[in-house]
Amino acid sequence: MGINLSKGGKFNLSKDSSSLDKIMLGLGWDLIPGNTLDLDASVFMINNKGKIPADEFFVFFNNLKSPDQSIEHTGDNRTGKGDGDDEMILAHLSKISDVIDELIFVVTIHNSEVLRHHFGMLQNAYIRIVDIDTHREICRYDLDKKNFDKFTDMEFGRLKRVNNEWNFIASGSGSKIGLQGYVDQYTT
After folding, report:
1. For residue 88, what are the β-bridge partners?
2. What are phi and psi for residue 115, nearest 5 degrees?
3. Domain TerD: where (predicted)?
4. Which value, in Å, is the radius of gyration of the alpha carbons in the chain?
5. Is residue 47 part of a domain?
6. What is the pTM of this model?
7. pLDDT digits (tens, 9 = 90+) for 150-186
8. How far apart, in Å, are the Cα atoms of 140 and each of 74, 133, 137?
């Protein structure tokens, strides 16, 4: 059993295990019965200027691998049905380009404005980090439903490199800017 974080909580992955290199970031949620949503997980690989250095450093359902081969999105889950992680991001920490300082993990609802979908139609949302080699859950952040009810998209967490150590930050920051809003934020 890993560390349970609360909103804003931080965890130093490198201090937990100096040999840790391959991790899986699992993002999960359950639909409140009677609802249907298509949620999409994305990763923005950010440089020291707070921007992606090239379009390919935005990893999502239409770009499943980063150009440095360090980040891989395992694919889009369009229904969220079933137990466990609904979408997974694999990270090979030692392969992450030196120009990248931070990974930002975002989940957005596809076509939320037209369909009037929002995170209030979900329950049991979380992000967790698992050591791929040992299958051990390192840390987990269960989002508090009262913090995301009215939003259409959410930054679940950040993985930040500080002095060659990786720190996870449980963000839980909701918004209504949509996927394009995040793209604009990290590209312009």
Report:
1. 26
2. -90, -5
3. 1-186
4. 15
5. yes
6. 0.91
7. 899 999 999 999 998 999 999 989 999 999 999 999 9
8. 19, 18, 8
In this structure, which amino acid lies at residue 52? I
Adjacent-strand bridge partners of 130: 24, 137
Number of domains in the chain: 1
Q: Which helix (H) or strand (E) holds 14?
A: helix 13-16
Residues written for the chain: 188
**CA distance linking residue 166 with residue 161, whole number of Å:** 5
Query: What's the rounded Cα separation, in Å, for the pair 115 and 128?
Result: 29
The DSSP symbol for 86 reads S
